[in-house]
Structures are given as structure tokens and as C-alpha cells.
Predict the 3D structure of the following.
Amino acid sequence: MSTPLPPGQRERSDFPRFGLTQFARRFPTQTERIELLLKGEVEQECTVSGEDLASLPRVTRSSDFHCVTTWSRRGLDWSGFAFADFFHHHAMPRARPAAAATLVILRGQDGARTSLPFADLLAPDVLLADRLDGQPLPLAHGAPLRLVAPAHYGYKNVKHLSRIEFWSDARHFRASAFGFMDHPRGRVAEEERGRGLPGPMLRWLYRPLVSSTVAAFQRALDERSRG
Ligand SMILES: Nc1nc2c(c(=O)[nH]1)N[C@H]1C(S)=C(S)[C@@H](COP(=O)(O)O)O[C@H]1N2
Ligand SMILES: [Mo]
């Protein structure tokens, strides 16, 4: 029934909290209230709240999630708001980004960041999600709001999303990790895992790191909940 996984991916039955290990012990300070700062080449910096987003049609979509380190989790039910609706009804009228601002930087409360071409964010399956599998988005998966861009590797799906910047070039962007680890688009179907290195080569580099990374992120979460 199910379609084959994208090139180089292997299915997991769980959905681990994951990322660069430097972010395992960094947690968001605000998990209840949504506050999205819009800045960059805009006419007016502004903040979009959860109440603002609630004026948009709620969208629920099932999608598969593909981490660049080769693990995939199928069939997650995300719910939230289409990025395109957020852009047309809040970002455009209020912040008025420059027409030349075709690069978007997305930042999370933990300091994680990535960039995507603005045009990729307008795809109908790109959401600002505040719910997962029928529940409010848990801390592990990006509370209070995360980007969900299913055609792009996990690292483009910024958790604890707090800031969206519109720029005409990449001058203001510094990758979370080594530059080669952040492809400008990161499309899963094209195996755009990283910059300058072929995707299939990065599979072998990343795959051995998965289990220790999952363990580090779980340990940090356990320690935090023990207080
Ligand atoms: N804020 C933030 N967003 C992030 C990360 C992170 O460490 N911090 N890790 C990225 C990576 S590499 C992946 S694979 C996914 C993992 O999402 P999950 O923890 O919900 O499984 O989140 C992405 N977004
Ligand atoms: Mo990832």
C-alpha cells in the first residue's frame, strides 16, 4: 500500500526527538504562547500571535518525516495553518516584505536556524503546526509551533519557531552547523542532504550517528522532566 521511501531513507517505528547534539540540552523558554517575530527586509517589523493564526483556516495533513541522517517516520498527522495563508493574511499585509526578499531564515527559540527559498514555503503542504496526532505539539516535537515542510529534510522543519526573516540574499544567514550540512533547499526527493557533497555519500557519514543522537536527545528530555 505505502509508497517507497525516498532514496537512502530507512523507516523507524518511533518518532524520536532529534537534532544536532548541541541543541539537545537547549529548551524553549515559551512553550504555551505563540509569538512569531517577522523581520529582515520588511517595511514594518511585527509579531504574529497564536490568536492571529487562529483567524486562518485550520489545516490537518498527514505526511512522512525524513531526517537527513537517513531515518524516516511515516504518517504523522500535523495540524496548524498553511504557511501560504499565514503569509498572505498576516506577513504580507503587516510586515510588507520586499519583493526581492526571496530567501527566508527560520529560527527556533533554542537557537537552531535554517533557510529556505520563499517559493518553497508556499507549497500547499507547508504548515505552521501547533498540533501533532490530535494533541497539542509536545515539547519534544517543537512546542508551541514548528514548521512542517514534508518535501524537505527534517532540519528545515524548525521547532519552537520564534522568528521568520525575509532577505534578498544569504548575507545574514549562518548555518547551525558546518556549512556543508545545510543545503539551500534540502529537498528529500532530490537527495539534497548537504552542500557540495553528494547525498549518497552523506548517508554513510550520518547513519552511524543516529542512535547516539537519539539517546542524547532522550537523556536531555528525561533530565529536564526530572528537574
Ligand atoms: N529548533 C530546532 N528545530 C529543529 C531541530 C533542533 O534541534 N532545534 N532539529 C532538526 C532536525 S535535524 C530534525 S531531524 C527535526 C527533528 O524533529 P523532531 O525532534 O520532532 O523529531 O527537527 C529539526 N528542527
Ligand atoms: Mo535531522
Summary: The pocket of MTE (ligand 1) is lined by residues 15-20, 23, 67, 108, 110, 112, 141-142, 154-155, 157-160 (CB under 6 Å). Residues 210-226 form the longest helix (17 residues). The mean pLDDT is 97.
